[in-house]
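Request:
You are asked to prepare a plain-text protein record giving the amino acid sequence and the backbone structure tokens, at your earliest convenience.
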Amino acid sequence: MTYPPLHSDDSSDYTIGPPIGFGASSIVYTAEYHLKPSTETPGPPPIPCALKVVDLDRLPPHALALLTQETQLMSLSKHPNVLRVRGTWMD
């Protein structure tokens, strides 16, 4: 049996809700991830998640390396109080 992915790098797979947090150059939103239905089964219910949207135009040039490090670190995190990074994309 093949399991669907827990994330997608396609922004159209997400429905963005209201903001839940703000930073100097980013906003965190509630969101829902919509798994695509397969030919055998209908689409399952959406999965709640959070999306961190970073405005790269407002980010100082030296901060891009820090953002990359932060993203890599958060993708490795398995702490129950820290959201794990499941994917990144530019849109």
In short: Helices lie at 63-76. The longest strand covers residues 14-22.
